[in-house]
Amino acid sequence: MRAQPALRTRNVGKRYREAWALRDCTLELPPGRVSALVGPNGAGKTTLLRLSVGLLTPTVGSVEVFGESPATNSVRALSRIGFLAQDHPLYRQFTVADLLRFGRSCNVRFDHELAARRLTQLGISLDARAGALSGGQQSQVALALALAKRPNLLVLDEPMSSLDPLARQEFQQTLMGAVADGELTVLFSSHAVHELERVCDHLVVINHGQVVLSGDIDSLLAEHRLLVGPRIETDPRGSRSVVEVKHSDRHTTLLVRQGAAPIMPGWQANPVGLEELVLAYLRRPVDPEAESHKEPA
Ligand SMILES: Nc1ncnc2c1ncn2[C@@H]1O[C@H](COP(=O)(O)OP(=O)(O)OP(=O)(O)O)[C@@H](O)[C@H]1O
């Protein structure tokens, strides 16, 4: 039997006044995985994340977390979800110990010991005031608070964007350790396409409010090939399997989906890297029907 998805959205659209931030978004996140949500500025990532945790309700369509709508705000549904907002605000005057006590008083499943141990291991004093910690340490405190809730789905909005490379690595290790420890599914948004492969095993790419690619990373890489051959003058973009076409003086390179695409004589099939794959999908024009994000007059 197929496991229940951690997150399932069906034809979700979100409109802010007359503008659509998200259109016809249908996706499933398998449980126990780390998924990255990738897209350029304004693509709709924060909107999708806020819909996933019940902070927004869809204009159309449905959102379910482990089979329940997060927007109903039922205690049971929300106790299974952890959320780290983009700027992960902490009460600056509170000590770390105050924040942990506060977390415990707000969440029935809060694991105080776990959070205190994680932070001590990272050398973060429980007596320190949040406002006196570095950006990286504040992110770790916010992550420890979110994990102490023992959520089944942890949603993080660009959690590493302000961290230096060392702090990013520590943050990633804490996250991956938490996934290895228990029944946790992670969905985080990121612009750092080059480091996704190290951190996650599932990917959702959105552009102009539409999901343009999603799936298991290994499968996506196996399904795509870069075909390199002598320059062609016809435009093969009409074929659904052709994602992108590039020409040099003498050669044409086709990014195709459909691993088994027949190779023409004189053509070579090469694997594609994840960053190249994501960027190719982001460069594709989106469906003109949905591109405007505007309601028809
Ligand atoms: N509260 C709001 N009111 C009106 N429009 C909004 C609101 N929030 C977001 N938008 C618009 O919705 C679209 C998607 O925004 P969203 O914040 O979801 O994108 P994003 O992918 O998270 O962007 P970024 O990477 O810059 O954080 C943008 O065009 C944005 O201007």
Question: What would you note in describing this structure?
Answer:
The chain has two domains: 7-216, Rossmann fold; 219-291, no CATH class. Helix 4 runs antiparallel to helix 5 and helix 5 (135-148) runs parallel beside helix 6 (165-181). The longest helix is centred in the middle third of the chain and has 17 residues, at 165-181. The protein is of the alpha/beta class and 297 residues long. The chain has ten helices and 13 strands. The chain has helices spanning 45-52, 75-79, 96-106, 112-121, 135-148, 165-181, 196-199, 217-223, 274-283, 288-291, and strands at 7-16, 19-29, 34-38, 60-65, 81-84, 153-156, 185-190, 202-207, 210-216, 224-230, 242-247, 251-257, 268-270. A six-stranded mixed β-sheet has the order 5-6-7-3-8-9, with helices on both faces. The protein has a four-stranded antiparallel β-sheet with strand order 11-12-10-13. A three-stranded antiparallel β-sheet has the order 2-1-4. Bound molecules: adenosine-5'-triphosphate. Adenosine-5'-triphosphate binds at residues 16, 19, 21, 39, 41-47.
**Multimer state:** single chain
- Reading the helices and strands in chain order gives EEEHEHEHHHEHEHEEHEEEEHH
In CATH, the architecture of the largest domain is 3-Layer(aba) Sandwich
The major β-sheet equals: 6 strands, mixed
End-to-end C-alpha gap: 47 Å
Q: What ranges have pLDDT less than 50 throughout 5 or more consecutive residues?
A: 291-297
Structural class: alpha/beta
Task: Report the bound ligands by name, code or SMILES.
Answer: adenosine-5'-triphosphate
Annotated CATH topology of the largest domain: Rossmann fold
Strand order of the largest sheet: 5-6-7-3-8-9
- The CATH H-level superfamily of the largest domain is P-loop containing nucleotide triphosphate hydrolases
Rg result: 21 Å
Enumerate how many helices there are, as a single number: 10
Strand content: 25-35%
Please provide the count of β strands. Answer: 13
Please identify the top-level CATH class of the largest domain.
Alpha Beta
* Shape designation: elongated
Number of domains: 2
Mean pLDDT: 88
